Amino acid sequence: MLALGIVFMTESIEGGFWKKFYKIVPGLFVAYMLPAVLTTSGLIAPEWESITADRTIEDHSTNLYYMASRYLLPAALVLMTLSIDLKAVFNLGWKALVMFFTGTIGIIIGGPLAILLIAMVSPETVGGAGADAVWRGLATLAGSWIGGGANQTAMLEIYGYNQKLYGGMVFVDIVVANIWMAIILLGIGKRKRINKWLKADTSSIEDLKEKVTSFSEKVKRNPSLTDLMIIVAIAFGTVSIAHLCAGFLAPYFEGTVNNIQSETTRNIFTFLGSSFFWMISIATIIAILLSYTKARNYEGAGASKIGSVFIYILVATIGMKMDLTLIFDNLGLIAIGIVWMAIHAGLLILVAKLIKAPYFFLAVGSQANVGGAASAPIVASAFHPSLATVGVLLAVFGYAVGTIAAIGCTILMQLAAGG
Fold it and tell me: Cα torsion at 406, 411, 412, 417 (round to 10°)?
């Protein structure tokens, strides 16, 4: 919170160095990188060890990211969705979906192309046999970058990658996905220039922002303590219902999916066993229903601002997981990941240019794939709090197509690696 306070305090300074600095670097990016610098310097630690009195070593880890992603993220989604105009969201049109599926295709073809390109320079990096085969490990990246954690775990089970080496793949996932998210956040600060280059029509996005802003102005009031308590009650009451329902639905669907005879069909629906998927989906559905009630008037008392506080805390906890020095520890696999992500990015830019899609669709379409429900709303809300729902809806799409698209990608990677 101190890091976030420093970001907001410096960002609010008119004139001088900070004014120039934040013109180039968005505050959200600094909120993300400052905790990463603190982790890298050793001032804070996501994981650490301690020695007990009887000389045994105990492992510890922070629960901040878990708390932020499982409690603050759904609460933020509720508060940012309260004032949503669902009709205006659907009016965003076909370009949002095209950019999302372009991102998916970018991941599917990026994996095998990255293997072929890296194999020319360093064949041993993409080698390995049996359970140690690198393509089996990269299958888990495909699952994560198209769907999410549930899809990633499904790919680990399907292709039987050596679990002792799996940590290395998780690390590549975190580093490369976070570098790409950092680039996207930097791009948000230059979105007007990017949209001009793309010749993009941003009218539908501006209409949605305008509708929410004018509604917010209409119901604006000085929030009382009662208002604030009710806002927090709506947010976390919804989160509690989402957790409760997810606790029943995830095990039920996991059992149902495990009983499916066809292995292919079973693997496609593994995401239904993820409690995170159900929790985010249920919280969003309840929030959309609440947007048709008087609860939406709490936007005037600052509902989406409180939601934004939660989102920024989540951004900081994601940044905390990044030790920047570790990038140099596994350069071969990182290189595959970077080439892979560059192909994904290149395809998105090409299609955005062709169909004149706004940078918003490019950024959110990519993050709905690569980051899933944890980071797509962050990127969407950086454009405007009212757009967070768009990120969630696309991320849920990602969960649905994640495993089957990742299987297609892995088949291609296996052929590329000659495995």
Answer: 120
Compute the distance between CA of residue 211 and CA of residue 209 in angstroms, rounded to an integer.
6
Is 236 exposed, middle or buried, given 0-12, 13-18 or 19+ CB atoms closer than 10 A?
Answer: middle
Q: How many CA atoms lie within 13 A of 369 on its CB side?
A: 29
Q: In Å, what is the CA distance from 285 to each residue of 60, 273, 281, 289?
A: 36, 18, 6, 6
If you write DSSP's letter for every residue of 153-195 in order, what string do you get? HHHHHHHT--HHHHHHHHHHHHHHHHHHHHHHHHHHTTHHHHH
182's CB contacts (< 8 A; 6+ apart) are: 29, 32, 33
Number of other residues whose CB lies within 10 A of the CB of residue 143: 33
pTM above 0.85, yes or no: no
Query: Does residue 65 contact residue 317 with C-beta atoms inside 8 Å?
Result: yes
Residue 48, φ and ψ in degrees, nearest 5: -155, 170
CB–CB of 198/357 below 8 Å?
yes
Cβ(64)–Cβ(223) below 8 Å: no
N residues, the chain? 419
The dihedrals phi and psi of 418, each to the nearest 5 degrees, come to: 70, 30
194-234 confidence digits (pLDDT tens): 999 988 888 878 877 888 778 888 888 899 999 999 999 99
